[in-house]
Design goal:
Layout (H helix, E strand, L loop, with lengths): L5 H6 L1 H36 L8 H47 L1 H4 L4 H13 L1 H29 L1 H10 L2 H36 L1 H6 L3 H53 L5 H42 L8 H6 L11 E8 L9 E8 L4 E5 L6 H8 L7 E6 L2 E2 L5 H5 L2 E4 L10 H5 L8 H10 L3 H5 L18 H14 L4 E5 L7 H14 L4 E5 L11 E6 L2 E6 L33
Helix pairs in contact: 2-3, 2-6, 2-11, 3-5, 3-6, 3-11, 5-8, 5-11, 6-7, 6-11, 7-10, 8-10, 8-11, 10-11, 16-18
């Protein structure tokens, strides 16, 4: 583990001010230690020679003030450290969740969502020890021993030489022990991440496991991982306690060596009493910060290991333009006016023998109504993934108004898209809150109009509290068809020129499906709509119908003219839902 990971400064602005505060308090604490030792040696030496308490009143008062100042410095440093740790954790969590979502399903599919969740919660919580204990002691370990050594050397060169020779023993022992501790702590963190991730996955899939009678084997797996984590934790604690003992022994022997040589010279009359007291008072202070930083190192390694994993995710490049491409991009794109052109696009996933899309050519004009049909695995969702920038073409190019899609900023592109996946996610809030997810402050009238357009108004009004009815996490209080209608309302509320619908009517009954197609004809005016379905000649479909078969695109019948109804005034900016396992991806599109 690095003493200070520079990525903390890059990703967390709160860490910079805290480090400046820590150095300033470390300098103040170092000066106070030297002043305290000098005053205490003077008071004790003066008292031993018969000086009265009245004569020492000024020195005693100053000594009391120094002690209070040290206490205030220590309190202020710890309070500032805890506040900085809270700010850094908050910044890292926001950046981590935002970055993971912007990386999209193509990246998330290769991860274990439970491990990412454990990292963002329990893992980053361990940074408290890193900021509140380790970093302050690290600063003191750099400042105090040097200042104390110089002060002892000026008072008694021989004692200064002894301290200079023995002082490096503490960091040497700490490094040797730390190499072993690092491996033990990293193993502990990996087991915790595995335990948290596996447990979350098991809980999410518990109904399926119970249905197929596979709950007991998973219980055994969790028991085994829990036992491994317990053993790793105890091993790490054992190493930490033993390393603390080693550092204490080394510091005690070094202090005893200084005390013996000072005592012998004091008895021989070669050293004054005040100087001997000053050396004896300062010697433990030289070793104390090094012992403390060695002990706090063990408490901070879990947080440092978690931060390292978080930085690896944050360093993963986003799909988007390089600076040179961004400079050449020119004007911002507008999907209400620009044509999306796919030329020779092929998309191949790693580990799959056949490409998901093969040599696809397609022009999507503003206002187009396109229905994509084909069996499962034909490449329909992969085509939507390309348009959503969740994946990049293996070969070929996608252009928008003549500008390469990769040269368009990711946020600017997704701001113009509304998306309803096959299995949209509803959050544990009200019906209205789910519809207006990406648009805080959306009016009740706009929400109601979007619900009516999606065919959801009828059942919502029959709920106990109407639009204020909580739906539970995942919308468990609603049927699958009702969840789909809420997600459709969320998409229709969004004022996006490109609307992507992945099996939007899969969970609707015939009457609701007919209402949806009628409403879609109304709200689609002025928008480009791409609808994915398994069925050829989807009832109510208008516009071009294209079929995908094994990744190859073909037209099934010529385009029809769509009606041109008046577009309603309700326009919002809510997110369009999220895919299975990635419940916050709609926030990426808002």
């Amino acid at each position: 583990m690095k003493p200070l990971d520079p990525r903390l400064l890059r990703y967390c602005s709160a860490a910079r001010g805290y480090l400046a505060l820590t150095v300033a308090l470390g300098l103040a604490a170092t000066a106070l230690i030297l002043v305290q030792a000098g005053l205490l040696a003077h008071v004790l030496a003066s008292a031993a020679t018969g000086t009265t308490g009245t004569a020492l009143a000024g020195s005693l008062g100053l000594l009391l003030a120094v002690l209070l100042a040290r206490a205030a410095t220590s309190y202020g440093g710890e309070a500032g450290a805890l506040r900085a740790a809270a700010a850094v954790k908050s910044q890292l969590r926001r950046r981590l969740s935002s970055h993971a979502l912007r990386l999209g399903p193509a990246w998330l599919t290769g991860q274990q969502p439970g491990q990412v969740a454990t990292l963002a919660v329990r893992g980053l919580d361990a940074l408290d020890a890193y900021f509140a204990r380790y970093l302050p002691q690290l600063v003191l370990a750099c400042l105090v021993p040097v200042a104390v050594l110089i002060r002892i050397g000026l008072a008694d060169p021989l004692s200064g030489l002894v301290v200079a020779v023995t002082l490096p023993l503490i960091p040497v022992f700490a490094i040797l022990v730390g190499l072993h501790t690092k491996q033990a702590t990293q193993r502990q963190w990996r087991l915790l991440a595995r335990l948290g991730g596996h447990f979350l996955d098991v809980v999410e899939g518990l109904p399926t496991l119970k249905l197929f009678g596979r709950a007991k084997p998973q219980e055994k797996v969790i028991t085994q991982v829990t036992g491994d984590y317990r053993a790793a934790t105890m091993a790490t604690l054992r190493v930490a306690f033993l390393s603390g003992f080693v550092l204490e022994i080394a510091a005690a022997l070094a202090t005893a060596l200084v005390a013996v040589e000072v005592g012998l010279r004091l008895l021989a009359g070669h050293l004054s009493y005040q100087t001997a007291l000053l050396v004896l008072l300062l010697t433990p202070e030289a070793y104390l910060p090094l012992r403390a930083v060695g002990a706090q190192f063990h408490a901070s390694t879990e947080g440092a290991a978690a931060a390292h994993d978080a930085f690896q995710i944050l360093d993963t490049p986003l799909p988007g333009p390089a600076p040179a491409q961004r400079a050449r991009a020119g004007r911002p794109t507008d999907l209400r006016a620009d044509v999306i052109t796919l030329t020779g696009v092929t998309l191949a996933y790693p580990g799959r023998p056949e490409p998901a899309l093969a040599d696809v050519g397609l022009a999507i004009r503003p206002g187009d109504r396109i229905t994509l049909t084909g069996p499962s695995g034909a490449g329909k969702s992969s085509l939507l993934a390309l348009l959503l920038r969740f994946a990049e073409p293996t070969t070929g190019r996608i252009e928008v108004g003549g500008t390469p899609l990769t040269a368009i900023a990711l946020d600017q592109w997704r701001d113009q898209i509304a998306w309803v996946p096959q299995q949209p996610h509803l959050f544990a809030t009200t019906v209205a809150g789910n519809i207006a997810l990406g648009r805080p402050g959306a009016s009740a009238a706009d929400i109601a109009r979007a619900a009516a357009a999606a065919g959801a108004a009828a059942f919502v009004e029959r709920l106990p509290q109407g639009y204020a009815t909580p739906v539970g996490e995942g919308g468990l209080a609603l049927s699958s068809g009702q969840r789909q209608q809420i997600a459709l309302a969320r998409a229709l509320l969004r004022d996006a020129p490109l609307l992507l619908l992945d099996e939007p009517t899969a969970h609707l009954d015939t009457a609701s499906e007919q209402r949806f197609h009628a409403a879609l004809g109304t709200v689609a005016a002025g928008r480009t709509v791409i609808q994915v379905t398994h069925r050829q000649h989807e009832p109510g479909s208008v516009g071009r119908e294209l079929a995908l078969d094994r990744g190859r695109l073909r037209s099934t019948h010529p385009p029809q003219l769509a009606p041109a109804p008046t577009r309603p005034a309700a326009a919002g900016s809510a997110a369009a839902g999220s895919g299975p396992g990635h419940p916050a991806l709609e926030a990426v599109l808002s």
